[in-house]
Amino acid sequence: MSSEHSNETEAVLAVNDLHVAYGNVEALFGVSLRVDPGEIVSVIGANGAGKTTMLSAIMGLLRSRGEIRLRGRDIASLTVEQRVAEHVSLVPETRELFMTMSVEDNLILGAFRPFTNGDRDYRQTMDEVFHRFPKLKERLRQQAGTLSGGERAQLVLGRALMSKPQLLMLDEPSLGLSPIITREIFSIISDLTDAGTAIVLVEQNARAALQVSTRAYVLENGLVTMEGRSEALLEDHRIYDAYLGKRTRDAG
Amino acid sequence: MDFGIFTFLLQDGLNSAAIYCLMAIAIILVFTTTRVLFVAQGDFLVLGALTLSQLQLGRVPGTVWILAGLALLAFAMEGAQALRERSRRRALRAVLFCLLVPALVGGGVAWFSGKELGLAIDILATIALVGPIGPLLYRIAFQPLADKSILVLMVVATAVHFVIISLSLIFFGAEGWRTPALTDAQFALGPVLISGQVIAIIVTSLLLIVVLFLFFSNSVYGKSLIATASNRVGARLMGISTAQSGMLSFAMASAIGCVSGILIGSITTIYYDTGLVLTLKGLIAAVFGGLASFPAAAAGAVILGLIESYSAFFASAYKEIILFSLLIPLLMWRFVLAGHQDLEEEA
Questions:
Q1: What is the count of structural domains for chain B?
Q2: Which of A28, A40, A136, B280 has CB 3.0 to 4.6 Å from A20, enough for a Cys bridge?
Q3: Closest Cα of chain B to A206: distance in Å?
């Protein structure tokens, strides 16, 4: 894994000086971020620091200023649909499953872009997803809305994998899950990079995030205030006091 | 009432039922994909019937001008968007779909009208003229408002309805028109004669229901339409363009409306403003299906058609009142049903 900041390997995602404003209120003030192939990068920070805003801007759901390069190509002017076609995938905090549709239909729709671009063989991708999430195969005909929280978390990851993402952005994948299921989900996430997928992981649960990621960024009030290797940040007393102290230790 | 009258009314009722069913299908289709309660659906039927009647008389139908006007408007909007985005692809698409295709269709029809090429060609020309009006209307009136509330969209749909009937009045006049029968065939079923036209109407609507069912349950594009309706943000994150979904469902709606117009144009006289009443009856059938289920809406359409036809016999003055009063118990029933569903979802 190329965890060092080498400029020879092309970054999957390179964000440069990203600004986002909601009306007159600026939410991001020039954020820069880099993710290499097969790397998990976590972004930690308090509520309202701008983590979700950053992911939405990279996905194209929000207007932004600045450079967003995917494998060297600037995608800042593309629509959400075009970014999906470039194999960028976002799993939002709100999940956005198709609750009234079956598990199978949710997965098939995950492959919508590759399918319409001529890659018709979604069954094979689905088998790979079942390999990672055997539970989903059992629930195939069930409505997504009837799944348990843990199963929904699996479905939403499986659906994202159906688009064969090169860049996968996960917003609070542990939200609302019990500690046991959270551990399960994080162990699955750490395996997702097998295929060279690069992952941006946004988490409140800073300890869990730092444990699975190679590098991390700390976002505070719309600015990156710290960045470095996750192991180093886990030891850092400033991180400990702000994000790993008593308040969150139980959750980890 | 003897058996002859009974079967005649049955036939008549099934006939209307088929048309209400087609209306309901289109209304549900548009509503589930775009959240637009499309009050102007019946106007597509009117445009279909009137266009065919004009073509049969050898005249250039006013629909050509309606299509041209809408196409130019849509081109202006798409062109402006393409300039803003500096997108060459978008500009090319605008030229192709908003200029070239409508010009070819409109020009082609204007050129060959009066040459008496036969009913089949006239029918194809009618579908080619009326079909594109749906997606063009979506682009002009609904796409810019796609994220607005259902109420706003319905008000806009009502405005669209009035625009279309005004244009129909200008181009087709206030008198009613009839189209020639598709077939003169008659079948004897015991003592009753069943006209081929009635069979054509019923078979066509059954066929459309089956095709739509297969489209939604088996094709990825069909599923993408349902997904757009179920969760717009989710659909966008899957790379499904909500604008294209809307365009597709409006294209299907205008085509279905146009076909129903061609089907009933020969058994009912169609006026420029016939559409609204048909839309409303289709809407009752659609409510029967909870604005979601095609089979339930079809069942609703059959009940509606039969009640209409028999009440026309027994209490003809109260026909419409009986029909529209149905909506009240119907809504109460749906309300009880919906209450149940909500509880289930929360559990």
A1: 1
A2: A28
A3: 26
